[in-house]
Amino acid sequence: MDMAGTGVQSAARAKILASSTLKASSDNPVTGFMSFVYINQQVAPLTNVHCRMAIEFAANKTTLLDAYGGPYQGVTATTAMPPTVIGYQKFDLYNAGSHPSGDTASAKNQLKLCGQPNGFTTGMAYRSDRPRDTAEAQALQAALATVGIHLTLKGFPAGTYYSTFAGVPTYMKTHGIGLATGGWGPDWPDAYGWGWALFDGLSIGPAGNTNIGMLNDPAINKLFLDLEAATSTSAQASISGQIDMAVMKQATFLPVVYSKALLYRSPALTNVLITPYVGMYDYGMLGTK
Would you say domain 30-260 falls under CATH 3.60.15.10? Predict the structure, then answer.
């Protein structure tokens, strides 16, 4: 068994999917990791929530999933938290389920509401040395162009992506970069462990910033404080769900996929369990027949 637990690579994946015997010894769980696009509300015209909502509606979740690697690598995301986080509730504010190729009519209506009926142009940052990021940026560029939103793609190296470029608010604003690819996994599985660094205004920093959407909403900030103070699991779950919904209503975060991993386990193993939090096998429980 591969202890890294991140899934088999492409050659093994092809073998497994082509064999019913190998498939029977494989699993394809959601990992807790998520791929997404930040929408920076400090870059005009994305200062207007309706312009941000236009992007949410226009995104083609089918081509974005394909860019990520297809259905064995991920599942279309519609929320700001992955399903592995406590308090997760499924919802779909921007019609990704009913319009997986993009809700063009709703996107155009939002463009009218934000005073940009013919669309607009903005930059998009991505990590040019990561093939998935490149493919996702290109897929989103093509999708948004159908409603008149034109993305100027700007690739940066992963090693300095957060320290020098996408994670520097002044750089993003002065260079007119309104969107940026991102990926994240929770430190622990509640909305605080998942989302404080992404969505709380107190997390915004001058460099190395991970709240690239520049979300600083007093109501959301208070919900994180409430979550810190919560003493029951039910209260934590309720507040986590409220944070998720509130973030999506602000449209500073475009969910792309909840990551999945295709795992293989020897048929000689017993006590095979998947830990939901990380989508990996529970190695401490394994035995052999």
Answer: no
